Structures are given as C-alpha cells and as structure tokens.
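pasting for ref. prot 1 ->
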Amino acid sequence: MQNHWSSSFPQNFDVNESSLYQIPNINNFDQFVFLANKFRNLFRNNFSYNTPFSYEESYSFLSALNKDTSRIWYAISYKEKWIGHFGVKYLGDKNILLDNALRFSPKGGKPLFTDIKNALISHIRLHLPDYNILIVIKKSNTLSLNFHADVDFKNYSEISLYNKLELDPTHFSIMILEKLI
C-alpha cells in the first residue's frame, strides 16, 4: 500500500537558524493566529480573495489544517518568535502547489524564505520525485515574481487547473516545475 503524499513531510525541521513546525501542532497557537490573521489581511490584495478574514475565521481555518488532507502548512519561528508561514497543497494528479508563503517579520534575514522554498522543493524532489511542483502568482505581484526567479518555473497553460483553482488567467499565472521522472 502506498503512503499518503503528506506522510513524507516531517512534523518539524530547521532551515538556517529558523524552525518550521506543522500547523496546528505548535506552541503559542493563539499568538501565531493573531499574527497570521493580521498579515494575511494586510497582503490580501496579492491573493485571489479580497475580503478580510476575522480572527475567528483564521483560527478555525488554521486549527483545522491537520484535518485537511490536501495541505501541510508550517509555522516559522526565528529565535522563538513567529515570523511567518509556508506550506504545500496537493492539487491531485501528482501536482503539489507551494502554498501561502507569508512573512510577518524581517527577522531571520532576507534570503530565509528563499531557503525555505528551496528546502521544500528539494524535499519534494527527493521524496516525491514523480510529482510536479506548482506556484500561483498574481501577475502584478513583482515581489512574488522575484521571489521565484531563482527557480526554473515554466508557465502552465492548462485552463482546467485555472478553473479548478478559480483563478482568472488574465490576473494570475500558474507556473510549474515538472517532475524529474
């Protein structure tokens, strides 16, 4: 019997001087939700939704992540302070989306999120080599475009995935790193 795709991801791991812990199994969960909600609302114009989230909505969503078999999100701490989150989402058909990278604080240095992204890509390549890795970028979000510039993502033109994710291809790009085998 084949393991579920998510079983290859550890409960926690370190990148540089930062530690990543699977949400919701983290200490100071309330503090993390407060920060996540605050910054998700500040940067909501970079996502496909525009309506602000209440604290209660964020708490409910983040506390249910362990029941969502399509997602794994990591809370990121630096010197025991929450500085952001990053995750992956399984889209089906052996496609994994790098999901919701959001930084709450500049602590940990500028390249930290790039290092985390690269660690997740390396992990997927090592443990799930026959999976594609995808990203979704709002075309006007130059920070996100620059963030992913160091990886050779290609435009993904399969319109059915845009429809599945409810994305307008005039405003968003889905990009792909194709599987190795």
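and prot 2 ->
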Amino acid sequence: MGYPLSLEEVRKEVGQGQIGRPHIARAMMAKGFVKSIDDAFDNFLGNDQPAYVNKYRIECADAVQLIANAGGVPVLAHPGLLTISNENELFHLVGNLKEMGFQGIEVFYPGHTPQQTKTFAELAEHYELLVTGGTDFHGAIIPDIKMGSGYGNLFIPYELYEKLINQ
C-alpha cells in the first residue's frame, strides 16, 4: 500500500505481548503514516478497510469444548458489543450459548451502560449463568482504561471471583 512498515518496527510497540492491530496502528503513528490510532483503524486496519485481514475463527461450540478441555470456564465476554436488534434476540442467543456449554456472562464491563449491566445480570439469573466482569485492560494501547477499575469507577464484587474459581 506504499507504507513501508517492518515486522521489527511493529514488535517494538508490542514488548512481550502478542502482535495485534493496535500495535500496527501505533507503529504507523510512530512513522507518521497516520495521526492517531483511530485514524489507522478508520482508514486502514478497521473492518472493511484495505489493510484489514480477517482472523481465523472457529465454531462457537468447538471453542466452548476447547476452553472446557483446557480447564477453563466458557463465558460470553462484553455482550454489549454484540450487534443485536432487541432483547428477545439477546435472550435467544444466550439460551443457545448455554446449551452449547457457556457457563457465564460478563455483566460488569467499562463499555456497558447501566441498563446493559442490568439486562445482562437478568440474563445471567434467568439462565443460571455465572456473572463475571473485567476491565478489558490492554495496557498502554487504551490508556484511559485502568487495570482493576476500568475508567475509574468499575467495581466487580469479589464473590464473583470466588464463584468462578469454584466451577
């Protein structure tokens, strides 16, 4: 695309972690190809943009099986990011996921509105799923999100952790 960028330049943005699109965006920014990470995603790396490469995905039921076989607990992460048109569709989806073996739903998440948090808690109760939470902390890539508190006001009750590890 006419923007010389080496893997080594991207690795400098990663440190010990795995390479992802945000690291490529930061390397592009460092070289002056874009003005911001948002600019990189809006014009190059975002879905349907020219430098976007779709990642390999496996079937949901297969992922649940892999997670369970590895000793993990399959949980629907940040459901507020799903593009679902109404609550009935969401309830139907979560019911299907439970049948596949999902054991929890992330209720507490910095990007969820209070209404979403309430809805996801009701879903968890309805389907007898674990309630989980997370900050979606990814280090310096999203500097406004802090580990343990999200945007500064996220509180996840400790008893949720206890229930999770006792699965």
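The chain has two domains: 1-56, 60-165.
The mean pLDDT is 87.
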